[in-house]
Amino acid sequence: MERRKFIAGGSAGLLAFGASAAFGQAAGARLQAIRARGTLRVGTTGDFEPMSFRIAGTAEYRGLDIDAMAQFGADLGVRIEWIATEWGRFVAALRDNRFDIFSGASVTPAREAQIAFADPYFEFSSVPVVSRLAALRLKSWDDMNAPGVRVAVTAGTAFEEAAKRHFPRATVRVLAPPSIGYREVLDGLADLTLTSNVDAAMLVKRNRQLVLTDAARDPRDRRPGAFGLPPDEPAWRAYVNAWVQAKAATGFFKTLEAKWLSAA
Q: Residues 208-230: pLDDT tens digits?
């Protein structure tokens, strides 16, 4: 199974990103406000290991997207203000100026109709994670799309729409946070959940009750992953794009992949 792929481009001419005054001028009011505050407001869910997850009992976030945003803040010369949000709310929060950037999400048509995205830096796909007991009968996508099959997905994620599309004959339960699809499977309340390629690999590694079946060899819904941005701010989007391209050119995202995903 092809689990992940970084797809951001880059050019050597962008390596001087941090020192270029032109980028700062182009970003306009948003960048001026960030520098005036001394903080970059980053929205994140903290429930998507290994991209963004919160250490239990603490306010500390970790993950690939967290490291990326920390470096972005450092390159801007400001501190990070982490703002907790949920998958079903981050789009509205960006539109309401609750934060300056979202730490990373699948790019979908529904989201693109409401907010902007920076250039992609990642590729996601949908993979079913099945209980070990249910895996005896739920091996293929067709097996899972059947009456009596219970599917649990988290509200507001790309998997909510995907589950309804792929499993119209099954019973799809959409869970409001803090409930999460895979926990319903662990508790015996669902047969499977639909999640990302990277999350699926991590879940089955850490939970013996969860497995990947033949369906995992045929991941669906390949889509880019990118940082979410407020709508109608082309100058800010151009600034973030320049940073993504510059970091891709230096191998920054490949380094994060090796750190966070090589053991997944």
A: 999 999 999 999 999 999 999 99
The kind and range of the H/E element at 224 are strand 220-229
- The per-residue pLDDT for range 37-86, each reduced to its tens digit, is 999 999 999 988 899 999 888 889 999 999 999 999 999 999 999 999 99
Burial class for 187, CB neighbours closer than 10 Å (0-12, 13-18, 19+)? exposed
Instruction: Provide the whole-model pTM.
Output: 0.77
Alpha-carbon torsion, ordered 223, 228, 229, 230, to 10 deg: 100
- Report which secondary-structure segment, H or E, holds 244: helix 234-250
Cis peptide before 224 (omega within 30 of 0): no
Phi, psi (deg, nearest 5) at residue 194: -110, 130
Contact between 1 and 216 (Cβ < 8 Å): yes
Structural contact between residues 196 and 177, judged by C-beta atoms closer than 8 angstroms: no
What phi and psi, each to the nearest 5 degrees, are found at residue 34?
A: -60, -45
Return the exposure string of 122-133: e unless at least 16 CB atoms fall within 10 Å of the residue's CB, then b: bbbbbbbbbbee
233, burial (CB in 10 Å: exposed 0-12, middle 13-18, buried 19+): middle
pLDDT tens sequence across 176-196: 988 899 999 999 999 999 999
Token pair in block for residue 42? 């980053």
Cis omega before residue 178 (within 30°)?
Answer: yes
| Rounded distance between C-alpha atoms, residue 88 and residue 169, angstroms | 24
